[in-house]
Design brief:
The chain is mostly helical. The chain has a domain at about 45-70 and about 80-160. Helix content is about 60%, strand content about 0%. It is built from six helices and no strands. It has helices at about 1-10, 25-30, 50-70, 85-110, 120-140, 145-160. The longest helix has 24 residues, at about 85-110. Keywords: Membrane, Transmembrane, Transmembrane helix.
């Protein structure tokens, strides 16, 4: 008797409508396009022309800075009590960074490396990028506390 009352309470489900399989124009176009490449198939290397342009992009600002610098000498002041001028800091740090950057990008352009990422030239390029950021932070702000505050992340990143 209990079984008969339970079956009487259940309502029958209405039949589900069948979906039509008509082809829409967007579906037919989607099948004709080639599938997108997998992330492992995407090339992340720059072309040799791009690498040469990267090297030239480092030398152009340096040439401009050296030509527009007002004094012929880039030597530091004679006494240790005065710091170099902001212009001297910017020119000198860019001058120190330029050979490492140009060397790395030229080596990448001609594929003169065993491994593109794990090599000393990339490490030197990025280390001197952090050095430039550090010297620019003082040269552009003029505040030593800002220089020391920026020294923490830049020295940490240059080391690791």
């Amino acid at each position: 008797m209990v079984a008969s009352t339970r079956s009487a309470r259940k309502k029958p489900r209405p039949p589900t409508p069948k979906k039509s399989r008509s082809k829409s124009p967007s579906r037919s176009r989607a099948k004709s396009t080639p599938p997108s490449p997998k992330p492992s198939q995407i090339s992340v290397e720059m072309s040799p022309l791009q690498e040469i342009l990267n090297a030239l992009s480092m030398t152009a600002p340096l040439i401009f800075m050296l030509k527009s610098y007002p004094t012929p000498t880039l030597a530091f002041p004679q006494t240790l009590s005065t710091l170099p001028s902001p212009e001297q800091l910017i020119v000198l740090s860019t001058l120190l960074h330029c050979p490492f950057s140009v060397t790395y990008h030229i080596r990448c352009a001609f594929k003169w490396y065993k491994h593109r990422i794990n090599n000393r030239y990339r490490c030197l390029d990025q280390t001197f990028i952090h050095f430039c950021c550090l010297t620019y932070s003082y040269a552009l702000s003029g505040w030593l506390w800002y220089f020391f505050m920026m020294a923490v992340p830049n020295l940490y990143s240059a080391y690791w």
